[in-house]
Structures are given as C-alpha cells and as structure tokens.
Design goal:
- The protein has helices at residues 18-31, 57-77, 79-82, 94-105, 126-134; strands at residues 4-8, 34-41, 86-91, 109-113, 138-142.
- By secondary structure, the protein is of the alpha/beta class.
- It is globular.
Length: 143
C-alpha cells in the first residue's frame, strides 16, 4: 500500500500543472495515500546574487510561494481536498529538493510533469529527467 504520493509542481507555471496535480490526487485516492505537494524556489542565499535582495527577501518569497501553492491546490482540487494535502515549499535545486522531500515524506510515488520540451530535452524536461534517473521510488510522468 502506498503511504505517500508526492506531486512536484512549479507555481511559476500558473495553472499549467493542474493536470499533474489532478493525476497525483487520483493516484493517491486510488491507493488511500497521503498527497504531498512540493514546489521548489531557487536558492539565492549564499551566492553574490543574494546581495541584490533585501535581507528578508527569502522569507517573503517562501510565504508567497506557500500561499500560491495552497491556492493552486484549492483551485484545482477543491478546498475540502486541499485541507488534507501537505504543502511543502523547498529552496534549492528543483530535482534535488524533490528527491529529498520524497525521501523525508516516505513517498512511494513521485508525480511530475514534463511540459513541451525544447529540442535538447526532447524526451523529458531536465528536472523530470533527473528525478526519473535518480529516484529510488517509482516516478509517474504526466505530459
């Protein structure tokens, strides 16, 4: 029995990840599993780039990302279903943070989208490909 389904979405894509979220919810419901949803913000903290941002930029960005992630889940799946979702906002490299979140949540399945690839990424986008390649659990890719 699946304990947790982790759905990775990019909140900067707007509603383009709606079908990914719907598929993850359906798979979680099918197995009676917890649905966790993760979105990853880039990390500016330790590089010289961080000097261009206000001191509390990261905290504000996390709060805004959490709000957008919760709103995406509610608008896509409904507020009742949204209350049962664990919303996770991580900071770092997308594929690494998705894999870390899956491990810490005890996820048995990761659901991720692969959107209109560029020619160089013809089969999968770079993050989806890395998650598939490095994951220790099954990965369901939604086109």
């Amino acid at each position: 029995m699946t304990r947790s389904v982790l759905c990775a979405v990019d909140i900067s894509n707007g509603k383009i990840d709606g079908p990914v979220l719907q598929k993850a919810a359906a798979l979680a419901d099918l197995e009676g599993a917890q649905l966790d949803v993760v979105s990853v913000l880039p990390d500016f903290g330790e590089s010289w780039v961080s000097g261009f941002f206000q001191a509390d930029f990261h905290e504000k960005a996390l709060a805004e990302a959490q709000k957008q992630l919760t709103e995406l889940c509610a608008s896509t799946l409904g507020s009742e279903r949204n209350e049962k979702i664990r919303h996770v906002v991580a900071t770092g490299t997308a594929y690494q943070e998705i894999l870390k979140t899956a491990e810490s949540a005890g996820s048995d399945l990761i659901v991720i989208g692969a959107h209109k690839p560029d020619f160089k990424d013809y089969l999968l986008g770079p993050n989806a490909a890395r998650v598939v390649r490095h994951s220790t659990v099954s990965v369901y890719v939604v086109r």
